[in-house]
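Notes to self, Carbohydrate sulfotransferase:
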Amino acid sequence: MRPLRRRAVIAAATTATAVLLLGVVLVGGGVVVERAQAMESCPLPTPARNSVSDALYDQNYVWLRNVNAIDRNTQRPTARRNTTCYVSDRFKFVFHHVLKNGGSTIMVRLKLGIGETIPGHKPGEPWPGDMHQRGFTSHDKSWLRGMHCSKAVRELRDYVHFAFVRDPYSRLRSIQAFATHLRRPAHRAFPRPIPSLDTLATSSDPEGAFRGATSMGIGHAMPQSGVVASGSGWVVDFVADIRFMREAFQDHLVPVLKQRLAGTGIDTTPLDNFAAYFGMTKQVNVMKKKEVDLEEEERIRCLLYKSPVYRRDYELFYTTHERKRRQASQP
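result:
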């Protein structure tokens, strides 16, 4: 190839490459602009006056009440929604079961570790598949029993009350998946379809949206805030993110419970055994197969920010998580 012709070919190739790169930059820039515009049109909920969102993000748990001040005179408001609590009079605690927030996982371990439903069972050993149907304890009911949370709040003032919270979007998907799973039995026909995520995120009555669509108890769709808070007051003393259940029990709750029982003569070994049942649990109640379109996820999250029902779950617990998540998604 002649020198002049070679230079012309190189120049043309260089120009084409530059145009291609410019196009990539423009397209990439367009994506960035679109993402920024989408975020501007979908502002995060304003944190509530009593929000613990920052602390929950930084620590994965929050003490909502000074544990040293919990006594028979402690005043807790009644939750807007009444659920089942698991109570140990012997070890002075009340677990508030927020549905779809790892409650079944905790209940089984409470029965094994605190209630000693299967005497001699050790953490790490397999357990029967019928644990949900078994009684709370092999001892008397002071070791472990069920109770309406509204009654527990009124009567058990000097006990440590705790609950777990969860990212509202993850929880909503889990609720919908559970409802779909419980729709499977062929012997029963359901007159209504499973509600879409759009419907659940925008409805003023997401619980009612499940009525006639599944055999799942519609209370699974209640907001978390209605269980752990009432107005500006906290129903529980401690909350933690369910992704850090092991740390919450082993590093925080169990040590506090043992400290409060010091000098009483009560053997606290069952508390240690209970905590040990979480030793091999890295992630609890997190969907194993996550096939989610990211744009679709952002769209549903945006609807949840404005939800008349679930918005307060963000305002109290997850505004900071969302802000950090969105910042991390930006190029």
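- Residues 109 and 169 are 26 Å apart (CA to CA).
- Residues 3-40 form the longest helix (38 residues).
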